[in-house]
Amino acid sequence: MNSYAVPPTRREAVVRQLREEIISGELPPGTLIKDAEIAARFGVSITPVREAIAQLSVEGLIDIAPNRTRHVTKVTQKNALELIDVMQVLACAGFEWGMDNLTETHLETMRQRQREFVEGIRSGNMVAATAAGADFSTVVILASGNRELQSMVDLVVARTTRILAQTAESDLWQIWIEGHDGVLAALEGGDTEGALRRYRQIYADYRAKVATLMFGA
């Protein structure tokens, strides 16, 4: 059984572990999800497993067929690009709303998350890299004071992360590394408009790269 930190409830523990395995690619798209096998592997009853699967279905990470069989969601070109578009709209709105509220403490946190992001990629720890990369934007979005928006962003990020988390060598990562560096440089120079333009450009570049690299479009 894989080791994992147990959150307040068994359901949350199973959600966290399954989500991590799906995002990291340990459970590839199309993998059949069986309640009994997961319950035995995690040492829990069937009930929290079923509740966790229902939650991950809402997040779009698990598909539940009419016959009730469950599989890890397959990424198609259409849903991948649509998810990127939605993430761009939500994240850029939060970024724009939060920029003027950033303090030096916020910027230092962003610098630290960027260092963790790069280190995670270099060490091949895709889960850590993904979390740090998402937190980079979360700092700004939460500075807007709109926690409901952050909740929506979190849901979309959970579904799109599998596109990013291919391998440490993927060209997709470099778009975010360079983009974050550019955003930080602009913010540190007091150029909030430039920071927003650079942040938006990350998503445009990422979408184009996903379309060509993963789908040959």
UniProtKB/TrEMBL annotation:
Pfam families the UniProt entry points to: FCD, GntR
Gene3D superfamilies registered for this protein in UniProt: GntR ligand-binding domain-like, Winged helix-like DNA-binding domain superfamily/Winged helix DNA-binding domain
Matching PROSITE patterns: HTH_GNTR (PS50949)
One Gene Ontology term of the molecular function aspect: DNA binding
Signal sequence interval, chain numbering: none
CDD domains recorded: WHTH_GntR
Domain HTH gntR-type, residue spans: 8-75
UniProt KW keywords: DNA-binding, Transcription, Transcription regulation
Family annotation (InterPro entries): GntR_C (IPR011711), TF_FadR/GntR_C (IPR008920), Tscrpt_reg_HTH_GntR (IPR000524), WH-like_DNA-bd_sf (IPR036388), WH_DNA-bd_sf (IPR036390)
Protein name: Transcriptional regulator
Species of the source: Spirilliplanes yamanashiensis
